[in-house]
Amino acid sequence: MRVLTLLLLLLSLPASAAERWYVFSMGGVPVGYVVEETDGAKTRTEVFSRLTRLGKSLELRFETTTVEAADGALQSLTFTSVMSKQPTTLTARVDGDRIVITSGAHERVLDRGAAPLLGPRAVARLSAEKLRAAGDAIEYAIFSPELQRVATVKRSVAGAEAACDGTRAMKVVETIEGVPTSRTYWMDASGVAINDEAPGPFGAMRSCRATREAALAANGTLPADLYERTVAHSNVRFADPFAIDRVVVRVTRRDVTPLPSLVTHNQKSVQRSDDSATIEVRRNGGQAVLPVPGEYVKPNALVESNNPDIVKLARELTRATPHETAQELTRWVAENMTMDAGIVLAPASELIRDRRATCMGYATLLTSLARAAGLPSRIAMGYVYYGGIWGGHAWTEVILDDRWVPLDAAVYTPGTASAARLAAGTSSFADGGGELNALLTPLFGQIDIAVLEYDERGRTTRVAADAKPFAVANNAYVNPGLGLRIAENGWTPERAESTWPSTLVVAFRRGENVVELHHRPSNPDKPLKRDGEAMFVDAKGGMLWVWSARGPDAAAALREFLR
To answer: What is the domain range of residue 95?
Structure first.
């Protein structure tokens, strides 16, 4: 759901006196290139990758140009990212003890801090001078365009080791303040990277020095199940996830990356250890928010609440009360946007024009409309339960009755969004969401989520952490969460392990006749019937239970099966 953060660290490659090319790979598959070049005081780094997500091809391009003084102090930086049809550009200019950040028509001013800010050439020189043997370490400050703030960087030498091209190099481990994962460089004597490596949700992200021709030719295909690897499979399948008012989950990490606090306005920590956290999430919760910080009402480069089209639509959708307005805005986004896995991150002006995005775009547009309608709002990112899995997700939170209330236009049902979600954090997006992305990305594919307890329509259900979502034995299919036990003579269950993006729960076969049970949200309305199928639909809460049959005697087979 957020490919920007796959490249979060990649733009800090040290510069050299000549153009250098690198093959960029994910999970061992070449997917693009990195090129860096210098022209006097100017250093330009470009990262390009081509990926396929849920059958949709997308190209990502990031270009950073820095200008530094003769002593290596950063003077200015320009960062352009292409993650949708519309490029976005950020410029940062050092002005005395301030940093002036401009993105489109929006400007912010930050304190520069006491430490000098270094450019990439200065970082390379410092690394070459100070990082010569195991145990050597340096610390310096940079301006990070991804985080949109000053960040402290620490580098230490782990020892000497062969780089990706076989040459002997210094192995250097780097940490950046605010980024939970570290990055490893293999550097030559001039402080320039021969190759580097950082963890990513789709496997290790690596760049290796290569010829220009080899770098431009890097165009591999990632495994078809790549995105499935980033989800956490649920140990229970909710009969109506939209009706969940409270859920207690245990989050367990698979690697050494520390878990974030996972505490927000409606999430509290029940228990915590070095490798797991038990979190309680409530649909409605949290303390009053007074006064409201200005960042939640102002427009920014992505949440363009002052865009004329956004303002016009927000006025049209404004109702008598803030609650009614919030619901009308959410409904409109849910019904008028189309899911498009080829869009990673787009400003609201593009979203209102093209009406295509992933959940991040739905959240960005809804947040923009809410602010335009006078409702303070922000974006939450984390995981949501959907179709048997916990997947990466983004949604909107607005202040109603002085409290944050979650609204979800992508996983939509009328009213407040359910508690079947887990936020890693929230953001006004004044910083472009960089801090939040850095927090969330290391979790993808690296955590397990087990439901321990949940409240649904006033009833509490407790679940063993090691419970399985279903069982098949002696031609019987049992699913405790869905309240199902199906055993039909002559019918054999199959494909019971199906999860999102499929809506299939289980299928039963007898000869050439197949009966399927699909479990899908009732909103927004979508066509159900397919040619040649018999069908029975049962609506319960926010979900549809769809029984369908195909085969030479589909209608009779379905009637018999349902009896």
So the answer is: 3-227
pLDDT (0 to 100) of residue 54? 65
Find the distance separating the first CA and the last CA of the chain, reported in whole Å. Answer: 42
- Which pLDDT does position 221 carry in this prediction? 78
Tokens 């202040």 correspond to 399
Residue 50 contacts residue 31 (beta carbons within 8 Å)? yes
Q: Are residues 450 and 530 in the same domain?
A: no
pTM of the model: 0.92
pLDDT at position 548 is 93
Kindly report whether the peptide bond that precedes residue 291 is cis, defined as omega within 30 degrees of 0: yes
Are residues 168 and 63 part of one domain?
A: yes
Number of domains within the chain: 3
Identify the pLDDT of residue 17: 46
Q: Under DSSP, is residue 134 helix (H, G, I), strand (E, B) or coil?
A: coil
Q: Which residue has the tokens 């002006």?
A: 349
Q: Of the candidates 31, 405, 463, 448, which has an alpha carbon nearest to the alpha carbon of residue 218? A: 31
Pairing of strands 98-103, 484-487: unpaired
Tell me if 230 sits within 8 A of 448, measured CB to CB: no
What percent of the chain lies above the pLDDT cut of 70?
95
Can you give the length of the chain in residues? 563
What span, in angstroms and rounded, lies between the C-alpha atoms of 52 and 73? 39
Per residue, the 3-state secondary structure of 411-427, as one string, reads: CCCCCCCCCCEEEEEEE
**Domain final position from 227, 250, 279:** 227
For residue 493, what are the β-bridge partners? 508
- Are 341 and 56 spatial neighbours (Cβ–Cβ below 8 Å)? yes
The neighbour count for residue 23, using CB atoms within 10 Å, is 23
